[in-house]
Amino acid sequence: MKNLVRFTILFALLFGPSACGPRETWVYLVMGVMTREETSDIPEQFASYIEQEAGVKVVIHEQERWEPYQILENMRTNEELRDLVKNAEIITFDFHLEFLNVPEGLYAGKICGGEDNQDCIREAIQEEQEIFTAIIDLLTELRTGSPVLLRVFIIDDHYYQFELPGFGAMGKAETIEVMKMYYHEFQKFVEEESQKRGVVVVRALPDPYFQESRPPGEWLDGLGHYTEQGSRVITDELISLGLEFEVLK
Hints:
The chain is α/β, with parallel strands linked by helices and 249 residues long. Helices cover 44% and strands 19% of the residues. The protein has 8 helices and 9 strands. It has a 5-stranded parallel β-sheet with strand order 3-2-4-5-8, sandwiched between helices. Helix 3 packs parallel to helix 6 and helix 6 packs parallel to helix 7 (173-197). The radius of gyration is 19 Å and the shape is globular. It starts with a strand and ends with a strand.
């Protein structure tokens, strides 16, 4: 298991990935689904905070609406993205429960497999865990010792409590409870594996809204995306975790 050596923000200021002295501009690479600028204000809010704290200009580079398997594939094959990963001072990406959409449909249709009709869910969880590990491994390889402010988001499960206007709940209660159980299992894996490797995980949203309670209505828009106010709550959680840079080894 690779270890990570933590460095303070001062180290990054003095020894940026491609500089001999303090960097005046930092690159912020945003990857994922729910924490993009299109679906939240988190990148701009976080960039603004860093600019104030570190006295640098932050330039946001946002990728497509990629789910984790697409992040991994592009990190393997997309040279432009690989260059960004190698040189960015800040990288954030999120794990969202969209990877369970297909298994949820199979489970609801009673064609998921296994004696308990849950085989396809377990397979999806196992695959997503392997994707997470592979992403961190590849980040380590591409960074080659350069310090980076890396943050991994795991998204709350409000999707399972979401109601479409005029349609009510998006799934049956029994199906929702089963899917939440497995999604929470995946979240636990990401948190525990990250802790082993020194990677900082951001919970969006804070307790009790992360798993136990539906977020206040003003935090979400009609599509379940984060409003400016909801984004601010998550950004504050992100900020509270500090601005330590990491060298992945």
